[in-house]
Amino acid sequence: MSNPISRRGFFGKSFGLGAGLMLFNNFKIFSSGGKAPKIPVIITDHTNETGHNAMKAGWEILANGGAALDAVERSTNIVEMDPEDTSVGYGGLPNEHGVVQLDASIMDGKTYSAGAVACLENIKHPASVARIVMEKTDHVLLVGKGALEFAKQWGFKEENLLTDKARKIWLEWKQNLNQYDDWGAPDHLADRQNKTAKRFEELAFTYGTTNHLAVDKNGDIAGITSTSGLSYKIPGRVGDSPIIGAGLYVDNEVGAAGATGRGEDVIKSCASYYIVMRMAQGRSPQQACEDAMHMIINKYKKINPNFFPSEKFIALNKNGEYGCAFLIRDTPAQICVANEGGIKVHTGSVVIKR
Ligand code: ASP
Question: What are the start-end ranges of the H helices in the chain?
Fold first, then answer.
């Protein structure tokens, strides 16, 4: 989900780190905290109206006995189509050249299959292309021109993904990037004395991506992560979202996890894989998300103790329990959940409260 945040906003102060890295706890399987978990279930990090609509569509499939894989694809497609969302699919913020490049991955726990695309241009539904990579080839990841050619071969239409809204935001970024280049007002009209250029921190920069995880009535688990990646990224940059084990991981025996935020740290920490492995060792989805945050915080402790990347992790286990966490924020992370009990917003935690 789109989370406007200043580019440097994630450098916060160090406090609340006492919890440290949790030790492995091998023997407790799926402590439910007393609540009877339910399947089928589908969750997303998107808690806005589009997220609710996505859950409704995914739930319809699950409630009719459909597959988790179909449910997560349908619900992700709804978010990818939202022109107001500047972090996913159509309407996503472009790279530094003004080109929207999308990344997505899908994983099917039932068949232990995965597919992904990266730097895909002009195709509205990268998650669906990823599904075809998974189901119709023996590859896992296609990138750039090859991914586009592949999508067209399978009937996807090329479309302009840069909305006016996203183009204007990108132009504003360009105009304010450097007050000594030739973007912005002519030199003789610029008021450099009064620093008319905006501060970098004030420019729109979105962290955001969409994760969709589901367990169907047969207990099969599937997940998707889809994104337009970091705003104004260097063309060709690939984030965590299409990297299996980083932005997404699913294990039918355990559960699934998905990530949002600064992809570079999610890649280095293999965060989604780590969360699923923690659940396999008996941690609840909520605890496992927090464990992954502590793991990242601990990696930076000696290098730069004030560096806290902006991450959000969500997780679901095979019994239908779920959880979510922010690494650093002023409010706890939330997810939208659809199960027998209806569609609701669930509040998880924040590991470092600003
Ligand atoms: N994780 C995404 C990436 O690094 C971006 C985001 O979630 O904000 O591409």
Answer: 49-63, 68-80, 126-136, 144-153, 164-177, 263-269, 271-280, 285-300
